[in-house]
Design a protein that fits this description.
Blueprint (H helix, E strand, L loop, with lengths): L5 H4 L4 H14 L4 E3 L11 H12 L12 H15 L8 E4 L1 H13 L5 E6 L4 H8 L3 E6 L10 H5 L6 E7 L11 H14 L2 E5 L25 E6 L12 E4 L5 H12 L4 H12 L3 H8 L9 H14 L24 E3 L12 H9 L2 H5 L8
Parallel strand pairs: 1-9, 3-4, 3-5, 5-6, 6-7
Antiparallel strand pairs: 2-8, 7-8
The structure holds pyridoxal-5'-phosphate.
Length: 379
């Protein structure tokens, strides 16, 4: 029997392999430092929970609008206008199960077999799998570490061919942590307009910026609204990772195809969870802002040294020499010489997640990290 379908058998399995390994070690009681996902450290703010409970008590438990409840989408339209400077109507917003679902629907709606999708390296591994599932071909545009992983026009222009369909952006970036400037985004916008390309912008970290960095949504740049699919989620800043709620915005011409994928996949997002998320957007923002500023979340100095360390870890995972300190092999336990378990993935260490102190302590004891960019980042 042929199993599974070719598009699954031939694609990348990168995204979840490390998560699986870490889960096994967790279950075995190993004291793991989780670097393979960015789990917020705080509980979800109470007013969000209360709104969800109230929705349940009010009997909001039945099928709803496939695009998301109207009142929630209205609240999102206002947030998009006020915070992102984006002008979308309620029918250009679709509520999804987290950002992962939003971008999956976008990839599936946008990519035909053979289409090329440009990912900026360092990239987020899920985007490889999604490109491949849609039948597309991943094309990597390397960003230069020496240049702070800044976007340059040349780096992307060199990768554009007749088959290029979409450029994928993560802003603020994971794993580098870079918050792209308006000028950097303009490079992508210029190329997208010149070559008639789509841009998928993953803005899951939109609120998590420091030191005066301004988050700019690329869809707000002239000429980009109609060719950008922007994905958002409540996951990180609102500490709602387990709630699985996000949303995607796109021009009215693009949205029906995205809705077809999302609706076929899940019908719609859990209705009382949407009420909780509505309270997150409409209610006080102070609890969210306080979590973002909390010492445990906030990198000790600027984002960049931390993010460079994350990118370093990503590279380390490929280095044989590193196996002395910890093993990255799928079949072995990931342990350092002291027996402490460390899981890692292509996204590298995530100082934003709960184990940052333990990670910092480990990183400080690592010869490589001392000589690299983690020096002084051990608070
Ligand atoms: C860049 C990026 N996109 C998407 C996600 C996943 O978001 P969600 O949990 O809302 O699906 C993450 C999680 O770490 C991420 O870093």
């Amino acid at each position: 029997m042929k199993w599974p379908a070719q598009r699954l058998a031939s694609g990348s399995k990168k995204s979840f392999g490390m998560y699986d390994e870490a889960a096994k070690l967790d279950a075995a009681g190993v004291d793991l430092i989780h670097l393979e996902f960015g789990r917020p450290h705080a509980d979800t703010p109470d007013h969000i929970k209360q709104a969800t409970k109230a929705a349940l008590d009010a009997g909001i438990v039945h099928y709803g609008d496939f695009r998301g409840t109207l009142s929630f989408r209205q609240a999102l339209v206002k947030k998009l206008r006020d915070f992102n400077k984006l002008d979308y109507g309620v029918d250009e917003v679709l509520v999804t199960n987290g950002l992962t679902h939003a971008s999956f629907a976008a990839f599936m709606a946008a990519i035909d077999p053979g289409d090329e999708v440009i990912l900026l390296d360092p990239y987020y591994p899920q985007h490889i799998g999604k490109t491949q599932l849609a039948g597309g071909k991943v094309v990597i545009a390397h960003l230069d570490e020496a240049n702070g992983f800044a976007i340059t026009k040349e780096a992307i222009a060199a990768k554009i061919t007749e088959r290029t369909r979409m450029i994928v952006l993560i802003n603020p970036a994971n794993p580098t942590g870079r918050v792209y400037t308006r000028a950097e985004l303009q490079h992508i916008a210029d190329l997208a307009i010149e070559h008639d390309l789509l841009v998928l912008s993953d803005e899951v970290y939109e609120y998590i910026t420091y030191d005066g960095a301004e988050h700019v949504s690329i869809a707000s740049l002239p000429g980009m609204r109609e060719r950008t699919i922007t994905c958002f989620a409540f996951t990180k800043a609102y500490s709602m990772d387990g709630w699985r709620v996000g949303y995607v915005t796109a021009d009215a011409r693009l949205m029906p195809a995205i809705l077809t994928i999302a609706m076929t996949d899940v019908t719609h997002v859990n209705v009382f969870v949407q009420e909780g998320a509505r309270a997150a957007v409409e209610g006080p923002q102070e609890p969210m802002l306080a979590m973002v500023e909390a010492p445990r979340l906030r990198p000790p100095s600027t984002l960049f040294p931390i993010s460079a360390a994350r990118a370093e870890a990503r590279r380390i995972s490929r280095w044989r020499s590193c196996r002395k300190r910890m093993s990255w092999s799928r079949r072995e336990a990931f342990t350092d010489p002291a027996g402490k378990g460390i899981s890692a993935s292509a996204s590298g260490p995530n100082p934003r997640c709960g184990s940052s102190r333990r990670w910092s302590a480990w990183a400080a004891s690592s010869t490589h990290f001392k000589s690299a960019t983690y020096q002084g980042e051990t608070a």
